[in-house]
Amino acid sequence: METFSGRSIISMRDFTREEIHHVLETARQVDENPKKYANVLDGRIMATLFFEPSTRTRLSFESAMTKLGGRVIGFADPSSSSTKKGESLADSIKIVESYADLIVMRHPVAGSARFASEIAHIPVINGGDGANQHPSQTFLDLYTILKAKGRLDNLTIGFMGDLKYGRTVHSLAHALAHYNCQMYFVSPKGLEMPSDLLEELANMGISYQEHANYDSVKGNLDILYVTRIQRERFGTELDYDKIREGYNISKQFLKGCNPDLKILHPLPRVDELSEEVDSTPYALYFQQAANGIPTRMALIGLVMGVLS
Ligand code: CP
Fold first, then answer.
1. Residue nearest (by alpha carbon) to ligand 1 atom 3
2. What is the spatial order of strands in the sheet that 102-107 belongs to?
3. 57 among known catalytic residues
4. Which pLDDT does position 136 carry in this prediction?
5. pLDDT score at 163
6. pLDDT tens across 50-76, in order?
7. pLDDT beyond 90 at 218
C-alpha cells in the first residue's frame, strides 16, 4: 500500500480496496476516541480554498482540522480573493502553499484539483471539482454504509437523481466497484451516468443497470443514494424545471421498499427528498453528514503523516 503521508486526495480512481479500507479503519478509530487525537496537528495550518459554495465539506473539514489541534485559513467566496482581480489558479496555489501545510479546494472546473496537486508541494484534498469527483464525500459515504450495513461487499445500491453532473455519484460508483455491488442507476432522461464512466465500470466487471424510474428497482435495494438536480450546471432555468418534475421521494414513494433500506443523500436537498422521510427508519443522511467529521479527521491526519 502506498503511504498516505504527503499524498493528495484527488479521485477515487487513485485508491485500491486496501487503501480505502485503511482510511475507513482510521476513521473508525478516530470516531471511537476523538480526544486521543486532539493535539496531533498542533502548529499546522490547513487552507480551505472554496471557489464554489459549500456548507458541509468546508465546515466539516475546518471542524476536523480544529479537532486535531490545527488551525485554518482560507476563503469561502472567490470574489473575496484575488481570483476576482484575475489571479490564476496556479499562482494562487503557489502562494497558498507557502502559508499552509495542506490545501482543501473546491473548484467548478473538472480536473482543477489534479492540476493544483501537480503544482503544490503540499497535499491537496479535492473538495469537489466540477462534475468530476468528490473523494472525501465518498469516504464518508462508505463509512456510513459500513456502519449501517456492517459490510460493503455484495450490496444492492440504487443511485437516483442527477447522475450526469453528480460528482458524489461518480466518486462513489468508482469506489463501490471494488466491492462487487449490484448498481442501479435511475435518472431523468438527459441526466444519465456519463458513458465513459459506465464503460469503466463495465471494464472492471461491475454489474449495473440503467432505469428511467425507481419503481422497478425499489423492492431489493439495500441503499438508495439520492442526489439533487445540479441546477448550477444547467444552461437555462427552463431545462432545469422540465427535468426536476417527477423526482420526489416521499413516504408514499417508499411504499414497497426493502424494510432495511437506508437512504443516503450528500445534501443539500432541494425538493427531491421530502422532510417527512426524515423521521422514518430509512433516513441516514443527517448521520451521513455527521460522519464527515471522523472521516475527514482521518484523511487529514493520514496525509499530514500524524496518523498511519
Ligand atoms: N455534500 C456536500 O458536498 O455538501 P456541500 O456542498 O454543502 O459541501
1. 57
2. 71-75, 45-50, 102-107, 124-129
3. yes
4. 98
5. 95
6. 999 999 999 999 999 999 999 999 999
7. no
The three cell numbers locating residue 53: 459554495
- CATH code, 58: 3.40.50.1370
* Phi, psi (deg, nearest 5) at residue 225: -105, 110
123 pLDDT band (50/70/90 cuts)? very high
Same domain, 252 and 205: yes
Q: Indicate if ligand 1 lies below 6 Å from the C-beta of 106.
A: no
Distance (Å) from CA 256 to ligand 1 centroid? 30
Q: How far is the CA of 36 from the centre of ligand 1 (A)?
A: 27
Residue 144: CB partners within 8 Å, gap ≥ 6? 264, 284, 287, 288, 291
Active-site residue, 56 included: yes
Kindly state whether residues 163 and 279 are assigned to the same domain: yes
Look up residue 295 and give its three cell numbers: 472521516
Answer yes or no: is the C-beta of 82 below 6 A from any ligand 1 atom.
Answer: no
Amino acid at 113: A
Residues 7-30, mean pLDDT to the nearest whole number: 98
Query: Using a 6 Å cutoff on CB, does residue 45 contact ligand 1?
Result: no
How many whole angstroms from its chain centre is CA 220? 24
The pLDDT, as a whole number, for residue 238 is 58
Q: How far is CA 46 from CA 14, 72, 91, in A?
A: 22, 5, 18
* Residue 191: count of CB within 10 angstroms of its CB: 19
Active-site annotation holder among 7, 26, 48, 56: 56
Distance between Cα 60 and ligand 1 center (Å): 10
Catalytic residue among 57, 138, 144, 227: 57
For residue 94, what are the domain limits?
12-133+292-303
Number of structural domains (the chain) is 2
